[in-house]
Amino acid sequence: MTQYAIRRILYSIPVIFGILVVTFIMARAIPGDPCKAMLGEKASAEVCERFNREQGLDKPIPVQFGVYMKNIFSGDFGDSIRYSRPVAKILLERLPTTIELGLIALILAIMVGIPAGVIAAVRRNTAVDVGVMIAANTGVSMPVYWLGLLLAYLFALVLKDTPFWLPPSGRISAGLSATPFFEVFQWGIVEGSGIYNFLEFFANMYIFNSIISGNWEVLGDVIKHLILPAVALSTIPLAIIARMTRSSMLEVLRQDYIRTARAKGLFERFVILKHAFRNALLPVITIIGLQVGTLFAGAVLTETIFGFAGVGRMLFEAITARDFPIVQGFTVVIAVGYVAVNLLVDLSYVFIDPRIRLD
């Protein structure tokens, strides 16, 4: 397994390099001038010339790419043109928000999608099966931005005077503060140090931070703010997982060993869960890994609609402002995360099905 993992990591290097090249080119292919986007359309030619020189945008594209690659290998993503802050620092602040939202959405998609697919397969060609498939097809076809706006309108406006009201934007209500757990416990860590940045990354995951620090009021408020964006973001992955689970289960249920298990007089629940579901799980695990990319893509729209200060919203704002360092840095981190998740999915096959050997 170790050799397989190393080989997969080596195979991933050209993929990540290709993503770097494409992102670098696409960022500069966006119509518009970064100077005009940042300083306004009335910025003079002299001001823009100085701006481009300070940002290194006056150099030839190959030279810019060489500097970019050199900085990437040294762990430097550069400074944001818009905020004049290191991109790595902005990532530490924004990435936990997206990870938290994505994890909640993925858990929701798995917890609902897999049981729905199993039930649809077991109840094939019944009203339950038809209902699940109609809901799944609707979920796949429904744009995230449209569903997000619909949910916000329904739960924030239509139901505003009922117990079902939910906040339409933000991560936490005004007046509440998610104090980092290491400050609550007064660990006395020096701000700006490596351990401080490491702990701050996890503290920016408000659910984790609230549980560790025991701030249950903040925890309840954060969960309430997460419900609508998590539901909107999870809809498409949920529908795809349900459809794949149903398809995989139907294929397994036709196998001879399932008929043999039933002929032995085993309980139907035992046959479904022990024999059928476990053998149908591999394609489902694969599709779950692939949905990580869908979650990152959907986070751009979801975070923008619900006012979440995460990677997706920042990426949208950076593209609008032609902030090349943020676009490039965030895309690289997302790509590496996607490759890592799919590597973990491949390695998990051995534990799900011991017959598989990773040579």
TrEMBL record:
Residue intervals of the ABC transmembrane type-1 domain: 95-345
PROSITE patterns (UniProt xref): ABC_TM1
Entry keyword Transmembrane helix: yes
Transmembrane parts of this sequence: 9-30, 101-122, 134-159, 226-245, 280-306, 326-352
Keywords: Cell membrane, Membrane, Transmembrane, Transmembrane helix, Transport
Its membrane topology: Multi-pass membrane protein
Taxonomic superkingdom: Bacteria
Alphabetized CDD domains for the sequence: TM_PBP2
Main location: membrane
Pfam families: BPD_transp_1, BPD_transp_1_N
InterPro entries the UniProt entry points to: BPD_transp_1_N, MetI-like, MetI-like_sf
Single GO BP term: transmembrane transport
UniProt-annotated location(s): Cell membrane
GO cellular component: plasma membrane
Record family assignment: Belongs to the binding-protein-dependent transport system permease family.
Name this protein carries in UniProt: ABC transporter permease
Organism: Candidatus Desulfolinea nitratireducens
Lineage of producing organism: Bacteria, Bacillati, Chloroflexota, Anaerolineae, Anaerolineales
